[in-house]
TrEMBL record:
Keywords: Dioxygenase, Lyase, Oxidoreductase. It comes from Nocardia fluminea. Residues 8-123, 141-259 form the VOC domain. InterPro entries: Glyas_Bleomycin-R_OHBP_Dase, Glyas_Fos-R_dOase_dom, GlyoxalaseI/FosfomycinResist, VOC_core. The lineage of its organism: Bacteria, Bacillati, Actinomycetota, Actinomycetes, Mycobacteriales. This is Catechol 2,3-dioxygenase-like lactoylglutathione lyase family enzyme. SUPFAM superfamilies: Glyoxalase/Bleomycin resistance protein/Dihydroxybiphenyl dioxygenase (SSF54593). The keyword Amino-acid biosynthesis does not apply.
């Protein structure tokens, strides 16, 4: 029986200074759809996902990661998680209550060990969604979120201890040691990954496309639109998923991916991969090299929202 506490990744929320350009990027280029807005906060859905929204953007003076949201089975699970976190010394940002965001539901927020705001929710109404068709190069769902950590060992331990995340694979460097941990909360290879970085920040958010053809069409659309490509297209070894990384208008890295591995959790054993080996970073050999430029973009700016709850 699985001891995963979370059922799945719901959405991520970003605060951005250049709100209008960010909204244009997500709707006219990236392929998300507006489901609700109040002017300063807009909720964006993936057409193939039952989640009410997969990204929320908020107009703000400073860029920050507002929160990452995960689902649990029911309202009783929400209460149980909140109680255990409180007993374990975590800081609750809000107590369990009815949610006022699209789809409603029941949930709460807390700070993780480095001060990121995490939301836990259940009973959120499913959105009317549709099957993404052949050749339609738009996101089906939010695949995973990767964060930078100044103390990744402690951050991995936090998510293992409190939520039953399992390590699927680890990337290492011969001189620098372990550099990235891929964590799963279901059979998907990872819904969260923790990367060693100079400061806590968003590393990237990744969006699943229908298949290889749609993934390549989406990648080509970004290139033709003049969106800055950071890395790709290629196929990682850990997770066996494809990757094309682009920079959004506010300097956050966004990824198109497809074919993320689904594991047999009863038989899976984590690998320790040396990412200086070219086939680890890119099995195909089609992507540009993982170099200092790519790494610097992935570090992102230091998160201004640590241990500061977002206003919405």
């Amino acid at each position: 029986m699985s001891d995963h506490v979370f059922t799945h990744l719901r959405h991520t929320a970003l605060a951005v200074p250049d709100f209008d350009k960010q909204l244009d990027f997500y709707t006219n280029h990236w392929g998300l759809s507006v489901t609700a807005t109040d002017g300063d906060v807009t909720y964006l859905a993936a057409e193939g996902s039952p989640e009410q929204y997969v990204v929320r953007i908020r107009r703000a003076a400073e860029k920050r990661l507002d929160l990452i949201s995960f689902g649990v089975t029911d309202s009783a699970a929400v209460d149980t998680v909140a109680e255990k976190l409180g007993r374990g010394g975590a800081t609750l940002v809000t107590e369990p209550d009815r949610l006022q965001t699209p789809g409603g539901g029941y949930g709460f927020r807390f700070f993780d060990n480095e001060g990121r705001t995490i939301e836990v929710s259940a009973d959120v109404a499913a959105r009317e969604h549709r099957k993404v068709e052949v050749g339609e190069a738009i996101p089906v769902r939010l695949s995973h979120v990767v964060v930078n950590s100044a103390d990744p060992e402690a951050t991995v331990a936090f998510y293992e201890k409190h939520f039953g995340f399992k390590v699927s694979d680890i990337l290492m460097h011969p001189r620098m040691g372990k550099m990235m941990w891929f964590l799963r909360t279901s059979r998907w290879h990872h819904s969260l990954a923790i990367a060693r970085g100079p400061h806590p920040a968003l590393h990237h958010a990744s969006f699943e496309l229908r298949g290889l053809d749609e993934y390549m069409r989406g990648t080509g659309r970004m290139l033709r639109s003049g969106v800055e490509k950071i890395w790709g297209p290629g196929r990682h070894l850990a997770g066996n998923n494809t990757f094309s990384y682009f920079l959004d208008p506010n300097g956050n890295t966004m990824e198109y991916t497809t074919e993320l591995e689904s594991l047999d959790e009863d038989t899976w054993h984590p690998h320790l991969y040396d990412f200086t080996q070219p086939e680890v970073s890119d099995q195909w050999g089609t992507a540009n090299a993982m170099d200092e430029f790519v790494a610097a973009k992935s570090f992102n700016d230091p998160d201004k929202g640590l241990f500061i709850a977002p206003p919405v």
